[in-house]
Amino acid sequence: MVVDRSHHQRLRIPGIVVATLVGGTVECEGFGTLEAEPEPSALRWEIGSITKVFTGVLLADMALRGEVSLDDPIGRFVPDGVAARLPDRARQPTLADLASHTSGLPRIPRAWLWRLRGADDPYGHLTEEDVWEVLGPSTVRPRRRRRPHYSNYGMGLLGHLLGRAAGRSYEDLVTERLLVPLGLEATGFGLLGVVPGYRGRRLAPPWTFGALQAAGALRSTAADMISFASACLDPPDGTLGEAMRMAQRRRSGGRIAGVGLGWQVRGLPGAEPSAWHDGGTYGACSFLAVDPTVRVAVAAFGNRGPRFASPLDGASWRLFGRLRREAAGDGG
């Protein structure tokens, strides 16, 4: 199959599902406790921060529809009381800044840290009011060297701003604008049927994400994620297809590694980059990568969460790299 089974033993993840797309052919297999699963592609997972990719595509879609502009300052969409305490609009982060992690906002606001520590569902208690309270006179976009600084808070904020711009909830927008048109029927925000996850040796309940839904609340299957990856390689006609292409374009970062809208991107300047993202909660880890040039994609999921980095990333990158080389005709 597509994965060296010895990798599973080294990763210390109870169950893993890996799906690949190469030359239009999809393969999917389970490992460990999921090896005998008759339909591993149908198992439902917390995909964590891969949700940010959908938030980035949603922003691109709304920009192409004229509902927002990528350069809109955040103050255009916040409640009046919040807008009154922000700096002038020329100094505020923009919607594109939020989606590309160049807003200058923290990964998690310091004022929240004590409330998150030790909780099984660390973001579950957060409200929309909590999100607005973080914003104030110091919410200023960096002037120079605007390198990406990853922000769960910034992406969660973006979900609220897009919802206010459209007069709909973030959840409704993602469902109606992305999931339904792309036929991702098993993808959504519900907790039903999610693979049980482990934090160390104990069961870890799934995260609900509270008011940070746009940063990580989606659940999905390997079948749906490979279907989404296929749509990224061959975007549909119309606004949604253009939004999917727009989200993958590099907007910031270094010479090789950068950020699009929601996506992380890798590739030399002038070449079409690979787009990827990983995700993690206390009980799950995930990985998704697509290469438009050689038309390869990998989606991987495991039911043990990361301590620092996703335990799936290394093996997933090795698999993705090998498939890309084979597809390009460079051998194994």
Please name the defining characteristics of this protein.
Beta-lactamase; 32% helix; 8-stranded antiparallel beta sheet; alpha+beta; 332 residues; 18% strand; globular
Largest sheet: 8 strands, antiparallel
Question: Using DSSP, what is the number of strands?
Answer: 12
Following the backbone from N to C, one meets helices and strands in this order, namely: HEEEHHHHHHHEEHEHHEEEEEEH
Mean pLDDT: 92
Globally, the shape reads globular
CATH class: Alpha Beta
CATH superfamily: DD-peptidase/beta-lactamase superfamily
- Helicity range: 25-40%
Query: Helix count, per DSSP?
Result: 12
Task: Please outline the helices and strands.
Blueprint: H1 5-11, E1 15-22, E2 25-32, E3 44-46, H2 51-64, H3 80-83, H4 95-99, H5 113-116, H6 128-133, H7 152-166, H8 170-179, E4 197-199, E5 202-204, H9 213-216, E6 219-221, H10 222-233, H11 239-248, E7 252-253, E8 257-259, E9 264-266, E10 274-281, E11 284-291, E12 296-302, H12 313-327
Helix pairs in contact: 2-7, 2-8, 2-11
Concise synopsis of the structure shown:
The protein is an alpha+beta fold and 332 residues long. The protein is built from twelve helices and twelve strands.
Plain-language structure description:
With 332 residues, this protein is of the alpha+beta class. It has one domain (5-327): 3-Layer(aba) Sandwich (Beta-lactamase), CATH 3.40.710. The protein is built from 12 helices and 12 strands. The protein has helices at 5-11, 51-64, 80-83, 95-99, 113-116, 128-133, 152-166, 170-179, 213-216, 222-233, 239-248, 313-327, and strands at residues 15-22, 25-32, 44-46, 197-199, 202-204, 219-221, 252-253, 257-259, 264-266, 274-281, 284-291, 296-302. Strands 2-1-12-11-10-9-8-7 form an 8-stranded antiparallel beta sheet, sandwiched between helices. It has a two-stranded antiparallel ribbon with strand order 3-6. Strand 9 (264-266) and strand 10 (274-281) form a beta hairpin. Helix 2 (51-64) packs across helix 8 (170-179). The longest helix is centred in the middle third of the chain and has 15 residues, at 152-166. It is globular, with a radius of gyration of 19 Å. The two termini are 14 Å apart.
